[in-house]
Design a protein that fits this description.
With about 90 residues, the protein is mainly α. It has 3 helices and no strands.
Length: about 90
């Protein structure tokens, strides 16, 4: 169940997935990654939220695929952080 605490990252994530303007997409992805990283940091002290942690990991993987495919389409790398969402 989404609460106001974890809803923010999902809004940014969905915004990136649904963005049709290829010029805006890299910024949308960056905003989603930032929101996801912030939420993960909020969850660090909690042993709860296993499902949300999995959702965050799944979302990170989806963003990596999106970046890779968009990069292939334009022949450029859109992943200056090598695809890391959480500063791994």
């Amino acid at each position: 169940m989404l609460t106001s605490q974890n809803q923010a990252w999902t809004v940014f994530y969905k915004g990136a997935l649904l963005e049709l303007d290829q010029q805006k997409l890299p910024e949308r992805i960056a905003l989603a990654k930032k929101a996801m990283k912030e939420r993960l940091q909020q969850l660090e002290a909690s042993s709860d939220h296993h499902f949300e942690r999995q959702d965050l990991e799944d979302a990170a993987n989806n963003l990596r695929v999106l970046e890779t495919e968009l990069g292939k389409a334009f022949g450029v790398s859109l992943r200056p952080d090598n695809g890391r969402v959480f500063g791994e």
